[in-house]
Design brief:
The chain is mostly helical. The chain contains 13 helices and one strand; from the N terminus they run αβαααααααααααα. The chain has one domain. The protein is 69% helix and 2% strand. Helix 1 runs parallel beside helix 12, helix 2 packs across helix 10 and helix 3 packs antiparallel against helix 4. The longest helix has 42 residues. It starts with 21 loop residues before the first helix and ends with a helix. GO terms for molecular function: acyltransferase activity.
Length: 363
């Protein structure tokens, strides 16, 4: 997910860019929330040892929030940094900003999580206490197994994409053909799945980054009827969620469907916002601000929360709907604390660094 980059380059309460793109912040908020519901629905409700009945089958497609995040990441790379292609001197500031955006907040959550695997026997799969697994998890190095913080598997793709994009910034003429071959390889893997590491480096999810970059180019040039385009994208996204859950759409078909629908929705929403035809409530935009924190903390909080519920026999006291509500509320509260106490300070530092970078590379 994730969704893990800024929609705009923030200042202390205000963005640097003239357009906040709050519609995309709202999209991040919704995407992160449906990922939370996806894990609540499949890892707690719908699981025999906790509650065998799901909250609702449609939440089984909540992983689509991850597909949205990938499209959004590609969009923002092209939107914020596309003008720096062919400027090798811009690569280091770009990578430094990406490092500050991804790693420190992730390290806070991972460091808080790891002791549990040493202190509580039987928790996890066994690899979580191995030094090599800990190291690769901290560095987000691809391995055949999930990182210790399982949702961080998406961050491995983010880091890989950032490295590829930085190479494109430095050597665009060389890398454009490479990107073409990369996309072709990812498309080929829609039809068969090789083993690791080939499947990581040519995963079909890579196409979603590229879809997002295309959406950025289209949005800059403009197009007619952006409202209709946005509506078709949103309806298409919902339609594929319904198709996956109720009609058994194939996984790769859904990946492409979510990706193309998100691309369409993002392009339309950005044009609508730029034209002043749509506004987003500040509270929803703020939820987008803390969506990365929510994405990182929600799975450990859900796991700890449900274990506490059963240890205290609260499942015999409260209805399942109340338990679900409080579990989600706990995720939001933990995300709020992480965002306010740590992430916002890092964003402010990144903003200050970005001001210096913009002054250096303007003109």
């Amino acid at each position: 997910m994730t969704a893990s980059i800024d929609v705009q380059e923030h200042g202390p309460g205000r963005p640097i860019a003239t357009t906040r793109l709050d519609t995309l912040q709202a999209g991040r908020a919704v995407a992160a929330f449906i990922v939370v519901l996806y894990h609540l629905n499949g890892s707690i409700f719908g699981k025999a040892k906790y509650f065998p009945d799901q909250i609702h089958p449609i939440f089984g497609a909540g992983h689509a929030g991850v597909e949205f995040f990938f499209v959004l990441s590609g969009f923002l790379m092209a939107w914020l940094y596309g003008h720096r292609l062919g400027r090798p001197e811009a690569v280091w500031p770009f990578l430094k900003k990406r490092f500050l955006r991804i790693y420190p907040v992730y390290w806070v959550v991972l460091t808080a999580l790891i002791p549990m695997y040493f202190l509580i026997p039987g928790v996890g799969e066994g690899y979580e206490t191995q030094p090599l697994s800990i190291l690769t998890s901290y560095l987000l190095i691809p391995t055949p197994q999930d990182p210790i913080l399982q949702v961080a598997w998406t961050l491995r793709f983010e880091i890989f994409f950032y490295l590829m994009f930085s190479a494109l910034m430095a050597w665009p003429r060389l890398m454009l053909p490479v990107f073409g071959l990369w996309a072709a390889g990812a498309a080929a893997h829609l039809f068969f799945r090789p083993g690791f590491p080939l499947y990581f480096f040519f995963n079909p999810l890579i196409l979603l980054f590229l879809f997002g970059a295309v959406a950025a180019g289209i949005s800059r040039r403009g197009f007619p009827r952006p409202g209709l385009v946005a509506a078709l994208g949103v309806l298409g996204f919902i339609g594929f969620m319904i198709g996956e859950v109720y009609f058994g759409f194939a996984r790769n078909l859904c990946v492409m469907g979510y990706g193309l629908s998100a691309t369409t929705a993002v392009a339309g929403l950005v044009r609508l916002e730029q034209a002043g035809r749509i506004t987003v409530p500040r509270w929803l935009s703020y939820q987008g601000d803390m969506s990365y924190a929510l994405y990182l903390v929600h799975f450990p909080v859900l796991s700890l929360g449900i274990k506490t519920v059963f240890a205290a026999n609260l499942d015999r006291v409260f209805p399942q709907a109340v338990i679900a509500f409080f579990l989600v509320a706990a995720c939001l509260l933990a995300a709020f604390a992480l965002h306010e106490l740590f992430e916002r300070r890092l964003l402010l530092r990144s903003w200050r660094a970005n001001v210096l970078t913009r002054r250096k590379f303007t003109g």
